[in-house]
């Protein structure tokens, strides 16, 4: 028994009807699978009742023919629609990306999305179609309109995919899409990073910095994986300031298993975020970061258990959870257990990979540019006196921020060259039929009309490396551009956005700055550093830096430290 021509035509017709339906009500992966399953079982039932003399093998062959006709027609119809009829059809970009976001998977697996987006803008211009319904806008004028407080855009489907299908009141702040909910929660978070809160973290920050220096001291003369020590430092800081409990990676001098798992899983999050269908499938697979989640949940449980001691004043250390366990005074919003749990993971992830990447890369660049290192060191001596590198010398946070211009410039320049969150942050324009968004582009002095329900991003790396924003030599490490921007050919301050922008921008920015300045100033004072024998910095930059939403490295930055003579 083979299907008749009429059967095949019916399959093709059904595919076209499905496409019409799918175009209006974008289905989830389980819905698509359910349609296939129900359709197939119904066909088998019909075949069995109308052709009882044929064998089950014949019915299955017949079903396979019809399924192939259905799938091929559905995919062809979707492809033709996306290329020739879609509301974004007039925007330039590679056809592969207009057809499907699956085309991003090889690039994301290689961790090269920021470089690829930058090269797409060089080829196609400032507005590029980078997905069936997605545009990348490489223009400083679009930042406020897409990410700013007045923007009608909200977080895009990447964030839904990244939260792995958790229900409402179970999400972390970062993946909370509803703007009202985000605002209430953000106010609670903001309290944890207020001036007073940051002051209360200073002593702990100094203590962790001392611990790091002591451990590095013990390793002078031998080889150290400098980037990993920066990670140990940042993870310990976040566990201590997050939950008043140390992961103690610095003490152990190695990663614990949950943190290692987390690092491995970041790439998966990047790929799954690009292709939401994949994330639906991944949801039924074993959770790769279960150990990490159990670990942060356990830390949270212990922390909540200690709340009573803190209230009694037996433990007066303040931490970020002191604030997250409170409520928003304006709306009375109080976090659920699942939200607190998700935020426990967020504290660790958001605060660690980012800060550690900047520290690793700034030390890398200072070793590569000894003249700049000397400049920073001289300034530290001028500000703090010649004995500032003495042990236990507590550097003043305000002086580090306000008087150490070169120290701040090298950190800024590192974040310009290697923003730790390197790809554009995804937002979605409103979906109502009359909700087109008109963006005013600065460089081309033109406007672009963005159709409703378009996914948008402003590509951070492309902006940071654009000669129209930073000149001369936008790809070179030139911290002097931040020392005196007025002397630069081009310095577009608004195009520098390593911490994101607007109401969803980085809540931990000030803490990150305190941590980075303190660690770097102390490190520079105490150690001379060289690349380890055989380490090739040029090759390292070319081959070992990957974007997995936050920056990761595929090999250690090998250095040899020596203690500076007093
Ligand atoms: C150099 C260090 C850091 C950089 C470059 C950085 C960068 C960013 C960026 C670009 C965003 C926006 C992400 C988005 O819109 O999807 C963000 C958000 C966030 N960051 Fe940071 N970050 C850093 C350090 C920290 C630290 C130390 C913390 C402390 C916990 C932190 C906590 C957060 C949180 C909670 C969010 C989500 C904010 C929200 O959705 O309202 N970050 N960060």
UniProtKB/TrEMBL annotation:
The chain crosses the membrane at residues 32-53, 59-84. PROSITE patterns: CYTOCHROME_P450. GO terms for molecular function: heme binding; iron ion binding; monooxygenase activity; oxidoreductase activity, acting on paired donors, with incorporation or reduction of molecular oxygen. It comes from the Eukaryota. Gene3D superfamilies: Cytochrome P450. InterPro entries: Cyt_P450 (IPR001128), Cyt_P450_CS (IPR017972), Cyt_P450_E_grp-I (IPR002401), Cyt_P450_sf (IPR036396), Cytochrome_P450_monoxygenase (IPR050121). The keyword Transport does not apply. The keyword Nucleotide-binding does not apply. Its cofactor is heme. Belongs to the cytochrome P450 family. This is Cytochrome P450.
């Amino acid at each position: 028994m083979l299907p008749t021509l009429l059967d095949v035509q019916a399959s093709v017709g059904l595919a076209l009807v499905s496409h019409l339906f799918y175009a209006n009500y974008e289905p989830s992966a389980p819905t698509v699978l359910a349609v296939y399953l129900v359709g197939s079982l119904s066909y088998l039932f019909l075949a069995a009742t109308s052709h009882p003399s044929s064998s089950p093998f014949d019915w299955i062959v017949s079903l396979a023919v019809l399924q192939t006709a259905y799938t091929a027609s559905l995919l062809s119809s979707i492809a033709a629609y996306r290329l020739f009829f879609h509301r974004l059809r007039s925007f330039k970009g590679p056809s592969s990306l207009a057809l499907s976001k699956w085309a991003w998977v090889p690039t994301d697996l290689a961790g090269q999305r920021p470089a690829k987006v930058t090269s797409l803008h060089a080829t196609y211009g400032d507005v590029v179609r980078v997905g069936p319904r997605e545009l990348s806008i490489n223009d400083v004028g679009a930042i406020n309109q897409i990410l700013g407080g007045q923007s009608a855009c909200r977080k895009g489907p990447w964030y839904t995919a990244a939260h792995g299908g958790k229900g409402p009141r179970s999400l972390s702040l970062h993946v909370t899409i509803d703007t009202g909910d985000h605002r209430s929660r953000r106010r609670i978070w903001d309290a944890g990073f207020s001036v007073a809160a940051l002051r209360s973290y200073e002593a702990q920050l100094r203590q962790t910095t001392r611990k790091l220096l002591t451990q590095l001291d013990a390793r002078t003369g031998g080889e150290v994986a400098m980037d990993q020590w920066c990670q140990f430092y940042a993870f310990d800081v976040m566990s201590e300031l997050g939950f008043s409990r140390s992961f103690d990676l610095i003490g152990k001098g190695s990663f614990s298993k949950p943190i290692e798992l987390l690092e491995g899983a970041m790439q998966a999050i990047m790929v799954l975020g690009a292709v939401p269908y994949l994330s639906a499938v991944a949801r039924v697979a074993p959770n790769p970061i279960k150990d990490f989640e159990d670990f942060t949940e356990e830390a949270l449980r212990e922390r909540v258990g200690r709340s009573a001691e803190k209230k009694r004043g037996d433990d007066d250390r303040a931490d970020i959870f002191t604030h997250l366990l409170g409520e928003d005074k304006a709306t009375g919003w109080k976090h659920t257990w699942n939200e607190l749990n998700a935020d426990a993971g967020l504290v660790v992830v958001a605060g660690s990979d980012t800060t550690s990447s900047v520290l690793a890369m700034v030390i890398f660049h200072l070793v590569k540019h000894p003249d700049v290192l000397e400049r920073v060191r001289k300034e530290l001596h001028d500000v703090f006196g010649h004995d500032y590198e003495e042990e236990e010398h507590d550097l003043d946070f305000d002086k580090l921020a306000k008087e150490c211009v070169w120290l701040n410039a090298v950190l800024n320049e590192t974040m310009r060259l290697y923003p730790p969150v390197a790809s554009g942050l995804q937002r979605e324009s409103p979906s109502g039929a009359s909700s087109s968004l008109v963006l005013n582009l600065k460089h081309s002095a033109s406007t672009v009309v963005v159709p409703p329900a378009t996914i948008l991003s402003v590509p951070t790396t492309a902006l940071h490396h654009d000669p129209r924003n930073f000149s001369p030599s936008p790809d070179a490490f030139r911290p002097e551009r931040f020392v005196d921007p007025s002397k630069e050919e081009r310095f577009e301050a608004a195009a520098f956005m390593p911490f994101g922008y607007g109401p969803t921008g980085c809540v931990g920015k000030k803490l990150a700055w305190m941590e980075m300045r303190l660690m770097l100033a102390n490190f520079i004072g105490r150690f001379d550093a060289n690349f380890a024998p055989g380490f090739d910095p040029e090759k390292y930059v070319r081959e070992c830096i990957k974007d997995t939403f936050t920056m990761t490295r595929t090999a250690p930055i090998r250095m040899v430290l020596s203690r500076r003579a007093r």
